[in-house]
Amino acid sequence: AQSVTQLDSHVSVSEGTPVLLRCNYSSSYSPSLFWYVQHPNKGLQLLLKYTSAATLVKGINGFEAEFKKSETSFHLTKPSAHMSDAAEYFCVVSVLRESNAGGTSYGKLTFGQGTILTVHP
Amino acid sequence: KAGVTQTPRYLIKTRGQQVTLSCSPISGHRSVSWYQQTPGQGLQFLFEYFSETQRNKGNFPGRFSGRQFSNSRSEMNVSTLELGDSALYLCASRRRGGLFDEQYFGPGTRLTVT
Fold it and tell me: Worst-scoring range by mean pLDDT, A87-91, B52-56, B98-102?
């Protein structure tokens, strides 16, 4: 079974400083990995996804993540934090699994517990 | 292109009642998944539908059910509501069912059970 562990429940940075949100995953098969962001009282927005084409993935709003298979990690980074980055971030894994309708499915996403990012002026 | 829409956005029900939530996926998307988000349990997968067929189901009791229509719109139903069912219910759609197809989420329906 797959699982995702976000190593920090809260991260606090000052505006203009780098951001690092850590994520480790566990999967028996080659996973697809995503980072989503959720602003207060809003739905989830996709930041970036790993598709095996490249280990360094660039996303929206200056975020990027590096897939390291040997470390089973997919940490999210941003060189310079902005006040608008304050939100909750989720590391997500999707893997192949048998469908109860026959065949296979990738539809189940497994979410980490989330990291709340606070950005101080 | 319009995003995923969910109705209603807010709902208050009492224990024992039932509720139906609706989700309209992005045009052209055939897969719809549902998730429950609570402060204690985080985001948990409920089920996934593709072409009107349930493909996957999470570890929720049978009181939680869903369906998908031929136009890909989906509904989920919760019968005999319990206080613990209070949560944000999120619907997500994606174009097909491939490994790298990202899911696009709606704003959610906030259900409060009293």
Answer: B98-102
Give A29's pLDDT tier (boundaries 50, 70, 90).
confident
Residue B81: count other Cβ atoms within 10 Å of its Cβ: 19
B7 touches chain A (CB under 8 A): no
CB atoms within 10 A of CB A84: 10
Span A94-98, average pLDDT: 66
**Pair of tokens at residue B6:** 């969910």
CB-CB under 8 Å, A43 with B105:
yes
pLDDT given at position A14:
97
Taking the Cβ of residue B89 and every Cβ of chain A, the question of whether any pair is shorter than 8 Å is answered with no
Please state, in angstroms and rounded to a whole number, the distance separating the CA atoms of residues B76 and B56: 14
Strand, helix or coil for residue A31 = coil
| Structure confidence at residue B98 (pLDDT) | 66
The span from the CA of A17 to the CA of A75, in Å, is 16
pLDDT of amino acid A103: 56
How far is it, in rounded angstroms, from Cα B96 to Cα A30? 19
Between chains, do B48 and A96 touch, taking CB under 8 Å as contact? no
Which residues does chain B have within 8 Å of residue A90's beta carbon, measured at their own beta carbons? 43
> Strand A73-78 to strand A109-111: parallel, antiparallel, or no bridges (unpaired)?
unpaired
